[in-house]
Amino acid sequence: MISQWQLRAAFAARLSDMYGREVPAYTTLVDVSREVNEDVLRAQGGDAERLGSISRVTAERHGAIRVGTPAELAQVARVFGALGMRPVGFYDLREAAASAVPVVSTAFRPVDGEELARNPFRVFTSMLTPADPRFFDAGLRARLETFLAGRELFPPELLALADRAEAERELPEEDAERFLQLAVAAFELSAEPIDRAWYETLERVSAVAADIGGVRSTHINHLTPRVLDIDELYRRMTERGIEMIDTIQGPPRWQGPDLLLRQTSFRALAEPRALRAPDGSVTKGALRVRFGEVEARGIAVTREGRARYDRLLTLVDQQTALHPDGGPPARAKPGVGEDRAELARALWAEHIPGTEHDLAAQGLAYFTYSVVPDRPRNGSRPPTTLTDLVAQGWVRADPIVYEDFLPRSAAGIFQSNLTDAGSRDNDQQGAAYDSDWLSGAIDREVLDPYALYERQQNDSLAQVARELHLTTLKGAS
Asked: What does the pLDDT look like over 179-234, one tens digit per residue?
């Protein structure tokens, strides 16, 4: 029997092989990521594995796909449910993007700590929003919904096997092999000709809308390895002549602990596609929709930590807008020029604690806690506060890896790979989508990532209290 985590690991590996054949530059990205990780490990030793073992980091991937309807998203949930992956988080890229990106998203991933350690594969899954009149008028919406209703992304045999794997948490080897074949094939780039006029109609609204609703299949949009030094990877990829997007999305590189998620990508490549003209003839063309993304993961932050991160982003935006030419921000000494990254680093140093200990003490990030085997043995009673337990060597704090995504960063990656901004009528009222709506649409709960991190932290604190025979543990809320 093949367990869910084994199915997940096999699917991630096969998807990576398939995508490497379709987009050779992705293979280069994986190779450079591995080289950087090995160099960081040699230079930093065990510290390099503070946020995950090197074997986990090397194998780690997140994928991205796009679908058109709630029914298609519900089918995606069944396929990934077979792999032990659940929907976590709600992301509204319509509001996070300056360009026209008419999608809402969730991410399917394992949620149990042991499952994440075995294989932390994630798939960021976006769904088109035809009901949003800012992007689609009534006529185009009707045409789009009719088109989407007439396609089949996942064959019934795949969905039946997926339901069985989710219910039984395993599959016999022969059925597992069939499931993997069908699942990988569902995300391959189709050779079926694309209706050029229909694709271009949607492309005038948004290239993302065309990629979703202008074709009769879905495909892996990008696949993302994890790297321990994303700035070094960016430099090495550029040295190899691969065109990267202009920036690294997310928090700045700074001297303090890595937080949340940093992402970048190489630019979308022109891929040959067959295009069908209105007269029925088929010609060779090219579309730019797929790219290779890479990520560096940091520590998961609490709601308060995330609020501080968002405030700093706003502050960076405001000060950058005051000096769009790269001149000195108001807080800098006259004549001292700072670009956006330098400004962000300065603000982070001013407003974010510079150590893991201070992040924990201020309730800004999540950690797991464990009793130290060689803790004090002089017969003294352990202190009753978490801060003292850690400071006096009774308890060890290990950061929890951020397993999720940032809507603004995701939108930034999308925007950086668009040829134009598309069209958006901001005089219209946007259609309402939220996590509760999405849960109902796919008939399964979209989990709150903060609740998952908090539960992981609290479970570890409860274990510490039991081992040290503490009836109360202050600071364990």
From this structure: 999 999 999 999 999 999 999 999 999 999 999 999 999 999 999 999 999 999 99
Tokens of 264: 């970048």
Single-letter amino acid, residue 233: L
- The tokens describing 291, both together, are 């790219």
Pairing of strands 122-128, 61-67: parallel
For residue 470, how many other CB atoms are within 10 A of its CB?
Answer: 17
Domain spanning 2-222+419-446: which superfamily? Uncharacterised protein PF07063, DUF1338 (3.10.180.80)
Hey, what are 8's tokens? 């997940």
Taking alpha carbons only, the member of 269, 271, 231 closest to residue 248 is: 231
Q: Are 468 and 382 spatial neighbours (Cβ–Cβ below 8 Å)?
A: yes
pLDDT at position 412 is: 84
Q: Which H or E run includes 223?
A: strand 222-225
How far is residue 309 from each of residues 33, 222, 247, 360, 420, measured CA to CA in Å?
27, 26, 18, 15, 29
pLDDT of the residue at 238: 93
| Predicted TM-score of the model (pTM) | 0.92
Task: Parse the chain into domains and list their residue ranges.
Answer: 2-222+419-446, 301-353, 366-399+447-477
Residues 6+ away with beta carbon under 8 Å from 442? 70, 73, 74, 77, 87
DSSP letter for each residue of 288-332: E---EEEEEE-B-B-HHHHHHHHHHHHHHHHHHHH-TTS---TTS
**Run of H or E residues at 386:** helix 386-391
